[in-house]
Structure formats: C-alpha cells, structure tokens
Amino acid sequence: MAKRRKRGEGSVHLRKDGRWEGRVVVGYDDKGLPITKNVLAKTKSECTAKLKKLQETCAKKPNERLQPDMTFGQWMDFWYQNYSKPKLRPTTQEGYENAIYKHIIPALGKIPLSELNTNEIQQFYAKLKKEGRLIRTALYGEGVSDRTVWSCHTRIRTALDRAVQDGLIRTNPAADCKLPPQNTKEMKILSREEMQRFLIQAKEEGYFELFLLELATGLRRGEVLALQWGDLDFNTGALHIQRQIYRANGKLVVSEPKTKAALRSIVLPPSLVEVLKEYQQGMTSHWMFPSPAKEDSPLDPATVRKRLQTILNHAGCKQVRFHDLRHLFVTTSLESGMDVKTLSTIIGHVSAKTTLNIYTHVTDAMRQTAAAKIDRSIGKREPQGKTCSDDGELPTQTPKTYPEAAFEPYKGKNRKRGTGCLTQINDHLWEGRYSPRWPDGKIHSRNVYATTSEECEVKLTELIQQMKLEIAEAKHLAAEGKWEEAMALAGQKKARGIRDNASNV
Fold first, then answer.
1. Tell me, what DSSP letter sits at residue 84?
2. Do 420 and 460 touch, CB atoms closer than 8 A?
3. Distance from C-alpha of 415 to C-alpha of 497, rounded to nearest angstrom
4. Is the per-residue pLDDT at 464 higher than 70?
5. pTM (2 decimals)?
6. pLDDT digit string (tens) for 287-346?
7. Distance CA 203, CA 23 (A)
C-alpha cells in the first residue's frame, strides 16, 4: 500500500500516458477557491523533486495581494485562506469562518491594517459581548459567550502575529487586550447508583455494549464509533484506536486522529472482552457499532448523542454529555490510584500536563488525601473521630459496599433494534418475525409461532441467533464465490443478487 503524502505536500500520480504528474495548491482566489499548479516527469522521483522546487518558488514569489495599504479585512481573508485553512479539518474550518466572516471582518474589516490599534479591538470585544449574537437572541440574549470572544481574539492575534512576521506591521495590537475569564464548563458526573440505572436502561434499548465500553475506556465519541472488530484482539484484550469519525458538510467522514498521541492501544479488562465477544456473535458488519439503517456504515455521532439523552431520561438520571462519560472514567481512574502519566496515555492526551490542567479538582483531592497520610505517618496525628488500638494501629475499616440499584427499565412501545417484532394473531396464537438484510442486499423474513407471548419470545430469540449465524456464513460463502450455497441459506433460488453485491461483502 502506497504511503500517504502529508497535508500541504501536494499529490503525485501516474497518468495514462505513462508520465508522472505532481499537483499542489499554491494559493486561493478572491472566492476562496484553490489555485493549483502542476509538473510532469518521466519518473516518480523526478516528479517529486520538480514538485518540491515548484513549492519553493511559489513560496519565495511575493504575493500581489499583500499591499502596504491593505485593510485588516483583506489581511484576515488572505491569512485564513493561505496560512490557516489548508491545515484545518472541515469541522474546524466552519468555526474559523464563522468567527472571521460573521464577526471580525464586518466589525473591523474596513480599518487599514497599519492603523488598527488595541483600543479598536478592545471595543470590538466589548460590543461583541454586549450585542454580538446574530441568531436565537430571544433564547440566549443579545450578547455572545465568553468562549466566542476568546475564539475571535485567537484568530485576530494569530493573524496579526503573522502580519508582524511578514513585515506588514511592527507590533501586534491584539497582544495587550483584556479578555473575559475563561470559565470551563462544569463537568457533570453520574453517581454510582445513576450509572447502574443507566447501564440497565441502555441494555433494554440495545446500547449496553457501546456505553459500557465508553465507561471502561474513556474514548472520545468519534473514536469509539469508528472502532472495527479488527481493532480488538480477543486473546490479549488489546484495543487499537487508529481512526475517528465525524460529520462534515452533512456526510460522515472517517479519518486518522488529529494527534499522534491519539493513535494508541489500551488493554480491556477480561470481563469486558467477554461481553464484546458475546455481542459480536452473529454480527455481519465489520464495524463494532454499525448503523441499524445501513450496515456498512458506523453509527452517526448525532444519533448516539440523542440516544444518550433518551436513555438518561428513561433511567431517571441527570442529563450529561457523551464527553462527561469520558470525564467519569478519568475521575474514577484518578480516585482509584492510577498515575496521571498512564492515564494520559490511555485517554490520548498529548502530555500528562494536559490531563492535570483539565482534572485539577480531582488531583487536588488526591493531594489532600496524601497530605493527611503523611501527617499521620510523620506527625503521628490520629484522624478525627478515630481511635487507635493498644498496639498503636488504626482500627480496620469495613470496605464500603454498593448494593445494586433496584430499577426496572422503561419499556417503550417500540421494541429495541435487532429483536424482531411480536404480534398477537388471535387469542391462542402469537407470531414472531425477524427481517434482517442478507448479503444480496434484500430483506428476507422468517416467522415463528406459539400459543403464548412468552413462548413466542423464546422461539424468536432462538430464530434471531440462528439467522445471524446463517447471514455470517452466507457472506463468507459469497466472498468465496459460492453463490448457490450462499443463496440456499437465504432461501432463494437464484444467486444473482449476491453476485451483484459481492463487492460490498
């Protein structure tokens, strides 16, 4: 497999005429569309060398758009399109463009770059905080959040730093601006009892394995949804995180994580491995958590976000974000005695410093506990409310136990996905039906019948397990080209459907 070129290095490919072509983006036009140039060569190495030389030439060539009397708006647009945008992911680009083209340029864009001063930028921040909101003012008020002010300031300061480097201005006027305090969003963590109710309800609604894995690993939402069965070694319990999923421009995008630290392996506890092994039985998708609507696609992050809130509501728990489940894992790990360096590696932080900065409230409590232990050890001070025995030892404390929550899960009108449907035909007859999608791309149903709903439910469960195994076997046969055998499992007479869809197996 060919090695993928890094962002900004351009692309190199072999043409039909036998020559190699290299192409690179050298700039952007007034509409933000990329301007590309290409080179041709007989060999790939020669093409790569020519492409590198072209990039160096374009970098040294002065840009005609950089004028001494240009406005701040023109510079912001040029900086974003040429210095910033090529390095950003689509989701990050959206945030930059909202700040630049909806707030910064309309307010400060007409001021000459060389005349922009700290007072004008400071007034912009104050106005933004007071009356800068453009939508949903009736719901959130007329002012923007402190985070939006900081976002605009970061773009302005970085752009002006670049202007200083390019010799367009002597000093950065945004460097001395005063900003509102950065108040981090409060973390909401489920209690032990809430967590038990949450998992019971998640099992009822078919999301138990997903949320159990999240609570046991603290993976980011895009990371856990991008997992494939090939990422998990059932023998060692090693789980490899090597991709993430996010939505951009209305489509699901699967890509590598942003940082090298996010490419990591963690070891799952044996009990969780067993749960996932049982969960995998009969699954036909290579995704660990496939979409119920499209088997060859992972679950949509927005779907999981909505489902999380529904499960929390049904379980009677406080409303938390998916990211708060990650916080819950980190907090539990620190309180259990895991060292920060190991934890930062597990959750994919670049350094342990990042973990310490985010979870200061947890580490402060740990430091207080450590100080109390040192005080008892060195100062011989007895803890308040405790008495020592005759030999000077503290009395043995009974471990705290947490009884399981007595909770009956909420059962909605609709059955959870993957469990088929149950229908009462008359007073003495029940029908169970399971309608999965087979490798030929079509839905084939099978039925079971019983005189009671309980008996029919048992038969339906057995039918589902059997059909899942048959679907997996049919896919295997189809991949080997054994069309007739595969279609025999689906109960069809022709193998044309599977043959046409073999490329999707």
1. I
2. yes
3. 30
4. yes
5. 0.64
6. 999 987 776 789 999 999 999 999 999 999 999 999 999 998 988 888 888 888 889 989
7. 51
Instruction: In whole angstroms, give the CA distance from residue 84 to residue 160.
Output: 13
Question: CB-based contacts of 35: which residues, under 8 Å, 6+ apart?
Answer: 25, 26, 27, 28, 29
pLDDT of residue 300: 92
Strand extents, DSSP E, 260-417:
264-267
Q: Per the structure block, which two tokens stand in for 304?
A: 């999981």
β-pairing, 264-267 with 421-426?
Answer: unpaired
Q: How far apart, in whole angstroms, are the C-alpha atoms of residue 56 and residue 364? A: 51
> Where residue 364 falls among pLDDT bands split at 50, 70, 90?
low
Q: What is d(CA 137, CA 43) in angstroms, rounded to the nearest whole number? A: 60
Beta strands in 356-459 (DSSP E): 421-426, 429-434, 446-450
Residue 66 banded pLDDT, cuts 50, 70, 90: low
Task: Say whether 27 sits in a helix, a strand or coil.
Answer: strand
Nearest CA to 39 out of 59, 26, 54, 58 is that of 54
- Alpha-carbon gap, residue 67 to 234, rounded angstroms: 62
Amino acid occupying residue 279: Y
CB 330 within 8 A of CB 347: yes
Q: Do residues 287 and 279 touch, judged by C-beta distance below 8 A? A: no
Q: How far apart are CA 277 and CA 232, in angstroms?
A: 10
Q: How many Cα atoms are found within 13 Å in the side-chain-facing hemisphere of 268? A: 27
Given a contact cutoff of 8 angstroms between Cβ atoms, the answer to whether 99 and 111 are in contact is no
Sheet holding 11-14, edge to edge: 11-14, 20-28, 34-41
Residues in the chain: 505
In whole angstroms, give the CA distance from residue 202 to residue 189. 17
Alpha helices in 297-445 (DSSP H): 301-315, 322-335, 340-347, 352-358, 360-378
**Distance from first CA to last CA of the chain, Å, rounded?**
21
Q: What are phi and psi of 400, to 5 degrees?
A: -75, 130
Residue given tokens 């394995």 in the structure block: 209
Q: What is the DSSP letter of 230?
A: G
| Interatomic CA distance for residues 266 and 271, integer angstroms | 15
Distance CA 266, CA 217 (A): 8
Contact 300, 250 (CB under 8 A): no
Q: Is the dihedral of CA 41, 45, 46, 48 positive or negative?
A: positive
Closest to 168 in 3D by CA, of 214, 85, 112, 122: 112
Give the tens place of pLDDT for each residue, 466-505.
Answer: 888 888 888 888 778 777 777 676 665 334 444 444 444 4
Q: What is the mean pLDDT of residues 68-93?
A: 88
Q: What is the pLDDT of residues 96-132, one digit of tens each?
A: 999 999 999 999 999 999 999 999 999 999 999 999 9
CA distance to 77, 101, 104, 246, per residue, from 31 (Å) = 10, 12, 18, 26
